[in-house]
Amino acid sequence: MLAAALTLSLAATPAAAPPPPPPSVLLITLDTTRADHLGCYGATFASTPNLDALAKSGVKFEQALSPAPLTLPSHATILTGLAPRRHGVRDNAGFKLKDGIPTLAETFSKHGRRTAAFVASAVLDRSGGLDRGFEVYDDGVRRGPRAAYDWKERPASAVTDAAVAWIGSGEKPFFLWVHYFDPHQPYLAPEPYESRFPDRPYDAEVAFMDAEIGRLLAAARAKSASHLLVVAAGDHGESLGEHGEPTHGVFVYQATQRVPLIVAGHGVGGLRDPSSAATPVGLVDLAPTVLALAGLPAPRDTDGVSLVARMRGGKPAAPPAYEMETFFPAFAYGWSPLRALVVGGNKYIEAPRPELYDLARDPRELKDRSGDRTDEASRLAARLGKRVGDDTPVPESDAPDAAERRRRLEALGYVGGSAGPSGTESIDPKDGVAWLSDLDEGRRELQVGDPAKAAAAAQRLLARNPGNVPALLVLGQARARRGDDAGAGKVFRRATEANPGNALAWFHLGNALSKTGTVDEAMAAYGKALAIAPRDADTYVNALSMLRERKEPARAEVLLSSARALRLEDAEIEVQAGLLALSRGDVAGARKAFERALELNPSDENVRRALERLRSR
Q1: 3-state SS, residue 337
Q2: Does the pLDDT value for residue 9 go beyond 90?
Q3: CA 20 to 30 Å from 149, out of 57, 407, 446, 459?
Q4: Pairwise CA distance, residues 495 & 501, whole Å
């Protein structure tokens, strides 16, 4: 009887349930996306049903703050949990993520997840260092039907296609980062979105992106079912004319710094106090939050904190402080850089003329309170100064000349981590932004109008702002278009002297010297450009073309080998490879290169005709 009872007892004991599988994580970053242009953030004109539904099913942070109005620095913060001054990426060019800093991808890979990233802009090319920890880092952005930026971006449809194919290629839990670039200027949404928003091209791009996010979410959910954590975050916004800025990069006002942040899925249930999501948070908090929800240890030393407790109704012991910065005005235009600190509802902006805003009462930052709240402004200024110390950014390309870089920033009024006071030589971006209409006119005329008018617009700006590198580039290109290659070369040389870390200035100088100088002089300029932007396909294409035309096939072969070693996927590089093969009589090699070029750019009729001629031979 005892044996029978024991047998029945053991039979009735349920077998231990297997542990649940670890969650997969889908990180979606929305480039240049304002929170207030999504339906879930109150935009009645928006068409964003997929992001709206995601917000409804999870947690939507009303006041999420970006550390910088620039793509590469902001994404480095998203993936590391560090402020830009600590991870080292201070601008979209010339900087790289510091060695030894753990990224989300590295942590997930270490714990057995398969990892992949699909990015839509050349700004996030792997040369910025964000590829660390990813088994797949798909940055082949020069693909697809849109050519507005010479294919330096690819549309949401192409990004989604690539990501969905990868999701279905394996069975292990994953960490997947998908980046969409569409709301970035120029705003060129495909149909039917362009027609649905005839007077709002920016919102047409946002709607197109949202539709593709819907496809991505469907594929991820089909693969991971209930064990999926989804995070959607903007990297920065778009000014759309606020404060006189048409796009982003110059200012650190909320138009570019308040971004969407939505967390839904695995581990997000149990939110007891939705109002807690209205308190300020930062993109710097994203990495520790994702790791906590995924059950993985957070890095020991981050500037952000996990938001899980706050998502479930907890309150921070003290108002957190969030840093912001933009050095783009200094590097691009020779103006003063900007820093800001947000604590609670107060925002202090460090500039030649400092500013203080009460964000709770004045979210659009229309009334500067620094004059009537001097104590608060001084307190925040001191707190910001203590945090940043004597930090002075030096691009990697300028590392041998760090002292010279510091001297230049000091000349702009940036000394010891603070912008110079009013009355110094530095140009306050609040003053300089009004001049950029000439830059916009020059660029527009350069692209679709009269090079003479482009040159005139650039010269008007340079008369007031001689160190404006983009204006110098417009002037140089306008001269080149009019056949004045020698004059163009002189202007591009000025641009490299104004900002030695600007790869585009060296690239254009190389183009001018390829026509007026020696091969060695041109290659020296192209070499400088590649030292700063080692994966820039345009530089390889133009340098290969020059070497081939100047009868330097051996040097061209060496350069092509360098491009191959970097695994650059570019149709124009393949065209140059094919022409180089033909020059040495290698018809089979030329055919192979042209076939690859056509795969990368199926719309290139010149390559198609060249292939037909080769096949007929």
Answers
A1: coil
A2: no
A3: 459
A4: 10
pLDDT, position 1:
57
Contacting residues for 49 by C-beta, under 8 A, at least 6 apart: 39, 210, 214
What SS3 state is found at 338? strand
pLDDT confidence band for 324 (50 / 70 / 90): very high
Nearest of 94, 69, 148, 70 to residue 505 by alpha carbon = 94
Please list the residues that pair with 321 across neighbouring strands: 343
- Alpha-carbon gap, residue 262 to 601, rounded angstroms: 36
Q: How far apart are CA 28 and CA 164, in angstroms?
A: 13
What tokens were used for 495?
Answer: 């641009």
- Say which residues have a Cβ less than 8 Å from residue 609's Cβ, sequence separation at least 6: none
Q: Is the pLDDT of residue 151 over 60?
A: no
DSSP state of 574: H
For residue 172, which of 215, 105, 216, 224 has the smallest C-alpha distance? 224
Query: In the beta sheet, which residues pair with residue 281?
Result: 64
Beta carbons of 356 and 369 less than 8 angstroms apart? yes
Q: Which amino acid is at 556?
A: A
Polymer length in residues for the chain? 617
Token pair 């292939």: residue: 611
Angstrom distance (rounded) from CA 384 to CA 366: 22
For residue 282, how many C-alpha atoms fall within 13 Å in the half-sphere facing its CB?
Answer: 29
**Which secondary-structure segment (H or E) carries 580?**
helix 571-583
Which one-letter DSSP state was computed for residue 353?
S
- Helix (H) / strand (E) element for 451: namely helix 451-464
**Euclidean distance between CA atoms 521 and 518, whole angstroms:** 5
Residue 240 tokens, joined: 């759309």
pLDDT higher than threshold 70 for residue 71? yes
d(CA 105, CA 116): 8
Q: What is the per-residue pLDDT across 523-577, written as a single tens digit (0 to 9) for each?
A: 999 999 999 888 888 999 999 999 999 999 999 999 999 999 998 888 899 999 9
- Exposed, middle or buried, 28 (CB in 10 Å: 0-12/13-18/19+)? buried
- Reduced 3-state DSSP string for 266-305: CCCCCCCCHHHHHCCEEHHHHHHHHHHHCCCCCCCCCCCC
Residue-wise pLDDT tens digits, 275-302 = 567 789 999 999 999 999 999 998 888 9
pLDDT at 322 (0 to 100) = 97
Find the farthest-apart pair of alpha carbons in the chain and give their distance in angstroms, rounded.
107
